[in-house]
Amino acid sequence: MAIGKRCSELPTPRSRCLDRHDPLPLPRSPWISSVLGQLPHPAVWVAPPMVVVFPWLAFGHMIPFLELSKRLARRGHAVTFVTTPGNAAKLLGAAAAPPHLRVATLALPEVDGLPGGAEATADVPPEKVGLLKKAFDGLAAPFADLVAESCAGDGDGDAGFSRKPDFIIHDFAHNWLWPIAEEHQISCAVYLIMPAALLAFFGSKEKNEAHPRSTVEDYMVPPPWIDFPTTISHRRHEAKAIAAAFRPNDAGVSDIDRFWEMQERPSCRLILQRSCPELEPRVFPLLTDMFAMPFVASGLLLPDEVAAVDEDDDKVDVVRWLDKQPRRSVVYVALGSEAPVMASHVRELAVGLELSGARFLWALRRPAGEDAGDVLPDGFEARVAGRGVVATGWVPQVRVLGHGAVGAFVTHCGWGSTVESLFRFGLPLVMLPFVANQGLIARAMAARGVGVEVPREDDDEGMFRGEDVAAAVRKVMEEEEGREMARKAMELKEVLGDRGKQEQYVDELANQPEQRRTDIEQHQLITTEHQHHIS
Q1: pTM of the model
Q2: Which of 194, 372, 409, 410 could form a Cys-Cys staple with 366, CB 3.0–4.6 A?
Q3: What are the transmembrane regions (predicted)?
Q4: pLDDT band of 263, cuts 50, 70, 90
Q5: How many secondary structure helices (H) and strands (E) does the chain include?
Q6: Tens digits of per-residue pLDDT, 280-322?
Q7: How far apart are CA 416 and CA 65, in angstroms?
């Protein structure tokens, strides 16, 4: 099958941080040692570990998968990051990547009803994501060709990437990948980029069969297999979306069935989680027991240090505006790239920001089918001029969150945004969750006292009011309770934002493929030596 120009090694200027290829000599987790420590001594091999990384087609997934890929590459692994051509261009552009990272692009097949050029969930309305999954399933054959081609190589060509992968790290949606891995005797790990609490709420297939959930109300309370006090539950509008994950979509299979199949596949050796035991101490052992499989933390993948601003770059006008504002006086507002934000949400949020009287910087994403300017109340930008900025173009979010003028974050509670704002920079949150794990995150952060969730109607739509947004913003920015939230947020940042500790999780993970030459290889070596001795 012709795949086209599939692979390109990305040139990167070497820097001090990229010269570090050797993993730290950290003690290895007994979980991982029992699962992956089945290899001969590293001295028997001549090439660095080869890892294939393949995320689902959502930027909330692709970005952390790419960040993990970069970290593994910086530690000397040969990493192949697999995605589609359009997503590769958006994710990487002209940016440099570590020397050991290449990108393999696979073209999505056409599917009736899927908009032309759609390659990510951000390109389609929520009701067409099932069609995107159907197209994604069509990548099974070209991915099989890619793996077979690599396995047939001797490692000498293609900058050393033409050889059998030692490990495949993939997302929840790849239920067709395991047979490919098993054909070539390659071990796999599922990488879940959400908090472990969401999987605890989903539960295993066996738990759901023993305790079936058939109504929306069943998804509004903690499941019976969570036997400790918890905030793991959903509002009605969130539960409606969670229940849909248990039903087949346009791809013909449910999201949860895709994931559950891993329990039956011998190639799936462990589950990686973008979290850490310090954050979810009770959930990690619960999941290990429930799925009878090791759960291994990748750490939170904290964003890198904020780079200096290029004053000649017209993309950083918002940062220059922040430079003129008093310290901790600005609320940054961003609801992510994929939350199902409607025009009515934008209008109520605008009302709330205006009523709050707070300084704000709003990264406004145009709702589907709407012009960004048309969804704002008449005269809104004129009335808030001087204290509020609405940015409809690109905003450097990590730099904004790390700016000294920003004192709080109005967020949809996506996991990536929570990691960046709260765990990296210690900002208190004003929380407007929409779908998936966002509600669980909001409840957990409210329970920790580091943010306030905006009230919503208890119905299928879950609408909120501008007055409640204003009250939440004032509470965080002006009231004594908000100052206490800010203090607790900084305390949490000191624990979870420890870059050295978080990178240790990646160090330990990076050790695993390096230990992962198969029993077959060692057996063949021993057998060959034995036969030579006999002869």
Answers
A1: 0.85
A2: 372
A3: none
A4: confident
A5: 21, 14
A6: 999 999 999 999 888 899 999 998 765 544 444 444 799 999 9
A7: 11
Residue with the larger pLDDT of the pair 123 and 511 = 123
Do 288 and 320 belong to one domain?
A: no
Best CA proximity match to 159, nearest among 18, 14, 48, 4: 48
Same domain, 125 and 177: yes
Query: Do residues 135 and 263 share a domain?
Result: yes
pLDDT of residue 57 exceeding 90: yes
| pLDDT tens profile 206-233 | 999 999 999 999 999 999 999 999 999 9
Q: Quick check: 20 pLDDT over 60? A: no
Residue 30 reports pLDDT greater than 70: no
- Answer yes or no: do 163 and 177 share one domain: yes
Measure Cα distances from 71 to 80, 93, 307 in Å: 13, 18, 18
Residue 398 and residue 510 in one domain: no
Length of the chain: 535
Cα dihedral 209, 212, 214, 220 in deg (nearest 10): -130
- Mean pLDDT over 85-111 rounds to 88
Query: Given CA atoms 171, 176, 181, 187 in this order, what sign does their dihedral have?
Result: positive
- Number of C-alpha atoms within 13 angstroms, CB side, residue 320? 8
The enclosing domain of 380 has a CATH number of: 3.40.50.2000
Paired with 187 in beta bridges are 167
- DSSP structure class, residue 421: I
Biggest CA–CA distance in the chain, Å, is: 91
Same domain, 81 and 180: yes
Statement: residue 408 has pLDDT above 60: yes
Domain total in the chain: 2
Q: What is the rounded distance in angstroms from the CA atom of residue 9 to the CA atom of residue 103?
A: 7
Is residue 368 in some structural domain? yes
Burial of 369 (0-12, 13-18, 19+ CB in 10 A): exposed
And the tokens for 300?
């939170």
Distances (CA, A) of 470 to 360, 382, 412, 421: 12, 19, 16, 20
pLDDT of residue 307: 52
Say if residue 357 is in the same domain as residue 412.
yes
Domain that holds residue 177: 27-199+253-302+500-529
Distance in angstroms (rounded) separating the CA atoms of residues 79 and 165: 9
Report the alpha-carbon distance of residue 240 to residue 235 in Å, rounded.
Answer: 9
User: CB under 8 Å to 473, separation ≥6 — which residues?
Assistant: 331, 352, 353, 356, 358, 408, 410, 430
